[in-house]
Design goal:
Helix content: 25-40%
Radius of gyration: 22 Å
Shape: globular
Largest sheet: 5 strands, mixed
Strand order of the largest sheet: 7-6-5-9-12
Oligomer: single chain
Strand content: 15-25%
Structural class: alpha+beta
Order of helices and strands: EEHEEEEHHHEHEHEHEEEHE
């Protein structure tokens, strides 16, 4: 089944499992019915780690990243074949507590078996010398994969090969240098090294897909829930995500130094897309929230993200990572929404 929405033509990989998407339409209607005009708060998680999100969010996206990371300006050709991935498990807010309870026993077994000082990540468990933790991780992984199927949890992901990000960044920097060289003004424009990262690019493209998912399935707002990120990374995520709200029209201020008048000069750069054929700005994305590592669905996102990363790493170097063909043999392909041919994350 193919659906035309505001961004592109997406392919549902769940043609053989249409109940997944039907359940999301029904969940959106149920959440809307339960959300009265009075302000309320939705609760996700268990008593030991209760997570509150604002009333507007009727869809929760539990997000985890896997694979390659780093500043785009520091990428080198020897890393071209590495893959960066960001994945979201989508849970209707009105069902989050019920679904979270089903994942809690596996989470408890995993965390109890974890050695002191270890990190709560499935990759750490499989790399550990502690055989008990490794065996527990293997059992919990299989259990969580089954639960994702049984609860028809939708999966949305964004992946990239570092060669694509490196060459795109280098092309962009080349254009900026050419613009500076051809400028007739004597003013020196202040510039700083780019802070764009593989992760921030993945987050931006993932938000665009989540926004389209809300539009297609009838949700009014989606919040992204991460495990733990440091303050600097969180701020940069927020900045990248906020840019998706102003794609059609944006204004940025640039400062420079005029050596003739010896004064600071300022200017604005205004960007506007005239008469776009479809909506460009995100409309349904809410906030980025920190769920913490003790939420069972955070661990589930970690397990599913690493499962998909291992699958993608086995593909040919030329494979389009976000295309339907790339997930055709993955164990959770029926749950994936948003796989599409010609995705921008696959093109240079």
């Amino acid at each position: 089944m193919r659906v035309r929405n505001s961004m592109t033509t997406f392919r549902f990989e769940s043609d053989a499992n249409q109940c997944t998407w039907r359940s999301f339409y029904e969940a959106a209607e149920n959440c809307l019915e339960k959300d009265t005009q009075r302000g309320r708060r939705l609760t996700a998680g268990m008593a030991e780690n209760t997570l509150h999100t604002e009333a507007q969010a009727d869809l929760l996206a539990f997000v985890d990243e896997a694979g390659a990371r780093g500043y785009l300006r520091k990428l080198s050709p020897d890393r071209d074949n590495e893959i960066g991935l960001m994945l979201a498990l989508l849970v209707p807010a009105c069902q989050s507590e019920r679904i979270g309870k089903a994942f809690r026993p596996g989470y408890n077994r995993f965390s109890t078996a974890m050695p002191e000082g270890a990190k709560l990540h499935v990759t750490d468990a499989f790399a550990s010398r502690d055989r008990k933790w490794t065996e527990t991780a293997r059992d919990v992984r299989g259990e969580f994969i089954r639960l994702v199927r049984n609860f028809h949890v939708a999966i949305v992901y964004e992946a990239c090969r570092l060669r694509v990000k490196r060459e795109c960044f280098e092309a962009q920097e080349s254009l900026i240098r050419q613009a500076h060289e051809s400028c007739s003004s004597h003013s020196r424009i202040s510039s700083h090294p780019s802070k764009d990262t593989v992760e921030s690019c993945l987050a931006m493209n993932l938000v665009l897909k989540l926004d389209a998912f809300c539009e297609e399935c009838g949700f009014r707002r989606v919040d992204m829930l991460f495990d733990e990120v440091d303050e600097g990374v969180e701020c940069w995520y927020r900045k990248s995500i906020d840019e998706t709200r102003e794609i059609a029209q944006s204004t940025s201020v640039r400062k420079g130094w005029d050596p003739d008048s010896k004064t600071v000069v300022r200017g604005e750069i205004r960007m506007k897309v005239v008469d776009p054929p479809f909506r460009l700005d995100t409309q349904f994305f809410g906030e980025l929230c920190i769920a913490g590592k003790r939420h069972p669905l955070v661990l589930a996102a970690d397990i599913v993200a690493n499962s998909l990363l291992r699958h993608l790493e086995k593909l040919p170097f030329t494979a389009h990572l976000n295309a339907p063909e790339s997930i055709r043999n993955w164990e959770l392909k029926e749950q994936v929404w948003g796989a599409t041919e010609g995705a921008i994350g696959d093109l240079i």
